[in-house]
Design brief:
The protein is α/β, with parallel strands linked by helices. Helices cover 40% and strands 13% of the residues. The protein has 14 helices and twelve strands. The chain has a seven-stranded mixed β-sheet with strand order 1-9-8-5-4-2-3, with helices on both faces. A three-stranded antiparallel β-sheet has the order 10-11-12. Strand 6 and strand 7 form a beta hairpin. It starts with 10 loop residues before the first helix and ends with a helix. The site of pyridoxal-5'-phosphate (PLP) has 13 residues, from helix 3.
Length: 381
């Protein structure tokens, strides 16, 4: 099976974990502190707080902002729904922003309208969470400009974007804080894991306390990373450059074969000005509307190729769904998006097989419209 993702481990991670296990100190300790220093150094940010997942990082950030009932937080719909769930669990309201089908990132042209609407609905709009979707940078400078005008805090969801630079600056370092995920599908992994980066000493202190039971002075959580996870993270971080270049090599192969193919649209940042500053975490392509994406996923699996839909459209999830489709572009991305295998251990031949199988499956010769089953037939069975 050519899998969607695979951690890029070698003996170094195993040795690092063994050393921590042998030391007898496995909880948050020296390795977590070193990992935090290394992430902060890599990103050029003053503080880093390592936690148990990207979701935990978002939870801590929203708690540190004091988000509560009656508050509204702007979140792009087309993204993993961690932020939307947390906002909901804190009793606040996720306000979903639509995306662009060209690069799957938030549509900044709709931002002010959404803020005004939420205010007139009686919500206290407190923050915006721009997501650098799949590692591709969103239009952060425009987001910051609008956020400043409306006095909104900006927490960047850079879960997928470690290594992505915007004008030479790491994604996640533009707002009050940024978060990363170290889930196995991300650029580097610690099994599960996450981190918050910020330049604000005050915000960092709040986050550190929230990670550890409020340091017994206020309410808090246990979101501490273990030292053996951090030891893996340190090795992974030392390989970041080579992981990114191996992934780019695979992306180039996809690009050579898929660019310009009928029925398949690539994100525009791939074909445009070059993508050397983007750490692409998921390569999602958009299939034409007349192609049944789910059928393609099933057929690809028959050829031992794992694919899936790129991300949910959070505004359509049962807890958030309204009767009208408020984010049609996000809905289309969710329905027609196809995420292709992408990881540092993949070979050019594997990428070639994935791309050629996909082209073959959607070509009119191979592709057949799914049969509509007549109601009468169903009843008869
Ligand atoms: C954009 C985004 N934000 C947050 C998360 C949550 O990270 P984690 O799985 O580490 O909780 C993910 C994970 O897929 C993500 O893609």
């Amino acid at each position: 099976m050519i899998s969607l993702a695979k951690p890029f481990f070698d003996e170094k991670e195993k040795e690092a974990v063994s050393r921590v296990l042998d030391s007898g100190w496995i909880m948050q300790g020296k390795h977590v502190a070193d990992f935090e220093t290394s992430i902060a150094g890599q990103c050029g940010s003053r503080h880093c707080i390592a936690v148990t997942s990207g979701t935990a990082a978002l939870h801590i950030c929203f708690m540190a902002l004091g988000i509560r009932q009656g508050d509204g937080i702007i979140i792009p719909s087309f993204a993993w729904p961690s932020a939307a769930n947390i906002v909901h669990l804190l009793g606040a309201m996720p306000i979903f922003l639509d995306s662009k089908t060209s690069d799957y990132n938030l549509n900044v042209n709709l931002l002010e309208r959404i803020i005004e609407q939420a205010k007139s609905d009686g919500l206290r709009v407190k923050a915006i969470l721009p997501v650098h979707q799949f590692g591709a940078p969103c239009e952060i400078s425009k987001v910051l400009e609008i956020a400043a005008k409306h006095n909104l805090k900006v927490i960047e969801d850079s879960a997928c974007a470690l290594g992505t630079k915007i004008d030479g600056q790491q994604a996640g370092t533009f707002g009050l804080a940024g978060i990363f995920s170290f889930h196995p599908r991300k650029i580097i992994t610690t099994g599960e894991g996450g981190a918050i980066i910020t330049d604000s000493v005050e915000f960092a202190e709040k986050c550190r306390a929230l990670r550890n039971h409020g340091n017994l002075r206020s309410a808090g959580l246990n979101y501490r990373m273990t030292d053996f996870q951090a030891a893996i993270g340190l090795v992974q971080l030392s390989k970041l450059k080579s992981i990114l270049s191996k992934r780019k090599y695979i992306i180039e192969t996809y690009l050579e074969i898929l660019d310009g193919q009928d029925g398949i649209t690539l994100p525009e940042y791939l074909s445009n000005s070059g993508h050397s500053a983007i750490a692409i975490q998921t390569l999602m392509v958009l299939l034409d509307k007349d192609i049944d994406r789910d059928k393609i996923i099933t057929r690809m699996a028959e050829f031992k190729i794992e694919t899936n839909s790129g991300a949910p459209a959070a505004h359509q999830l049962p807890i958030f769904a309204k009767t009208s489709d408020t984010c049609p572009a996000a809905s289309e991305l969710h329905k027609q998006g196809l995420a292709l295998p992408l990881h540092a251990a993949m070979t050019k031949e594997e990428a070639r097989k994935v791309a050629e199988t996909l082209i073959d499956l959607i070509s009119p010769k191979t592709y057949q419209e799914p049969q509509t089953v007549e109601l009468e037939t169903c009843l008869a069975e």
